[in-house]
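Q: Can I see a sequence and its folded structure?
A: Here is a first one.
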Amino acid sequence: MLNPMSRIILLNKPYDVLCQFTDRQGRRTLADFVPLKGVYPAGRLDRDSEGLVVLTDDGGLQARIAHPRHRMSKTYWVQVEGVPGEAALRGLCEGVRLRDGVTRPARARVMDTPPGLWPRDPPIRERKSVPVTWLELTLSEGRNRQVRRMTAAVGHPTLRLIRYRVGSWTIDGLEPGAWLALG
């Protein structure tokens, strides 16, 4: 149950931004985009990934979003090298063996290029001899770099990773770097 007094911020985190508010090395952080105090990311999104980050001042909500035991689903748009066949998709759906154990079953499907997709800066590397495919992948756990490790394990390395949805929240209508306060 959400606390009606909780602040919830949805941010479309750009590529090459750390999912924290400070950095001693001077790299871009959430503070470059969200000028609010007292809110913190509920879970992480790697520096080389883009998309939805939920920020809140509610520690209980942070735990429900980030901790795997709550099984809050998250959907990713994943551009991969090659064209995954039925066996690769089935592997993603049934669970992939990684060094830290087998992943929970996921939902995976091939999708068209996401609608309204913004260009990434810098652009991904492109090789004319290797096709690329977009996947929609929905997980209910959040291991470190899990999506990238899963796609690599089924033979299709991730080129671009965008978190589209966390629970019922999405990045719909949010340009990279834009944020929205809910409530």
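Q: Show me another, different protein.
A: A second, unrelated one:
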Amino acid sequence: MLRAYGMKDVGRCRDINQDYIFVSEKPVGNLPNLFLVADGMGGHKAGDLASEYTVSMIREAVEKSMRNIPLQILKGAFQYANQKLIEKAGESSAYTGMGTTLVAATVVGEMVYVVNVGDSRLYKVGRNIEQITQDHSLVEEMVRLGEISREQAMNHPEKNIITRAIGVEKEVEPDYFTISLEQGECLLLCSDGLSNMIEDSQIKEILDRRADLRSATKELVYTANQNGGRDNIAVVLVEQG
């Protein structure tokens, strides 16, 4: 049996929450379940509109999709949401430049299908903690090229510069992943407001001792805030029971 829980928090330093989540253990269109985390960017109101609107467009596209292959359903939904957000941005000068990261997952049996764009992440936590997605960010590109170390990346001044996002280009280029999820293992979808505030090893410690997903989610958010809470925080946990 699949269990899931999610929450978002404004953090300690922001006035507006530009993160948005969606958690459904029940079918959405032809998908048996759907989990989303989006982290909006833009002006005062544009960022929170971008994330919420994108999530609603993903849901709409998935519900309408006639396809049966999970990654094809999600790929089409990402393209649809990208197009709709670009159109939305054209409605007002206040929306100019808005966009959002997005990570999506659906669990079909023991397989997990993941799509992401930007630097919101999906981790698998079992015996180890493994970051499945790769950040689409300037700093991540620098790490890949060997220009800076992983440790230097953690506090780099250009850490927040995203190289891919929903709503920025006419064609969005997500990454796609297929992984297995065994009983007792857990998925974590999160915005960078969590991953920038808590080391992976600390995330694993919290999830290893979880009594239930609700308390673990709250502890993750609390810890991110205790460590500074410099950004909005979004967390979705999914486990095979």
